[in-house]
Specification:
alpha/beta, OB fold (Dihydrolipoamide Acetyltransferase, E2P), 2 domains, 282 residues, 22% strand, 11 strands, globular, Alpha/beta knot
Length: 282
Amino acid sequence: MPTRFEEVPRRRWRLDVLLPSSLTAETQHLREKTFRIGLVARFLAAFRVDNLILYYEDLEPDKNAEFVKEIMDYLNTAPYLRRKLFPLKPSLRYVGLLPPLNIPTHPEVGSEHTFHYREGVVVSQGRVDAGLGRLIKTKKPLKKGTRVIVVVNPESGEFKLISRKKSPVYAGFKTAIVPERLDELVAHYDVKIATSRLGKPFHELAQPLVSRLSTAKSVCIAFGSAKRGLYDIAKLQNFNLDEAFDFVINVVPEQGVRTIRTEEAVCITLTTISALELLLGR
């Protein structure tokens, strides 16, 4: 039996994607910048990524990182909560053109009468807004602004609040900007994957990768930028890429285009990893 969309589970192992903060920095118009970020967000959500980590390739903070995070946070917020949490501002001018993520915790209008999960936010002590037309009361000591998942059971008329970490269904991804070197960022993961056209062809690494994934609890996949590949970034940050990562993979050997854009690389790589996950029965 196929899983109902509303009950699509989160992954059994944590999957994080690491992207350079310069994502879309070379794109001139705000509309195109917004569209490209929205495209990446859709790919991350489609493959149930847990966290997006933005790193500084040259270790120097840049404003583009905050912009990318803002758009990602906006898209990961349920539509009925956005006006309350995101005031109108120039940087969000084109977000209305982006397709919604439509993840399991962002229910469609009319779902109030069926069992489902939905995102809520604490608006005051003991009160949660989950877009139901009235506030939900809770005795839990939650701080204002805390995001929660609300389990709606219309048959019993009960609402149950759970944390995002304990949500049995996929609840979107979180975005963080982290200033550390890339090798320091990935040190604690069970499986560390780097993507590069200079890496080994995927088919040569598929078997050992499957073996490592079968026992993993945390996996990360890192991508380079439009200006620099990961080997260049590693040299710039003064570390050895092959030593810092378990696998350096070329997922499109003999590519038919001169360059593969970051959003394309994200989609191709996540498709490949998900195919391996299916082979593991996970």
